[in-house]
Design goal:
InterPro entries: Parkin_co-regulated_protein (IPR019399). The protein is mainly β. It is built from one helix and four strands; from the N terminus they run ββαββ. The strands form two sheets. Strands 1-2 form a two-stranded parallel ribbon. A two-stranded antiparallel ribbon has the order 3-4. It is rod-shaped.
Amino acid sequence: MVVDKAGSGPSKPAGDRCPRQREKKNKEQACDGFTIRAMMKNSVVRGPPLAGSQKERPAKPTAFRKFYDRGDFPIAVEHDTIANKIAWKDLT
């Protein structure tokens, strides 16, 4: 019968005797601008939010829109001695 020594176990390969160095993961953090976190090495500053200036906005109901939708333009032709002029109709 063979008696094992205390503390002896399966032998480790030669490469595992040195402690492994942890590989640093380059994780970039997204943060707001003008903060302390924005000055860190691994931070990426987010851009500003969209302002919405290019977004289509619905037209508000106006008197002109009401006449335009039904095909009756609120303009009138004034026949003058010099020239014909376009004038707005009185909407009241």
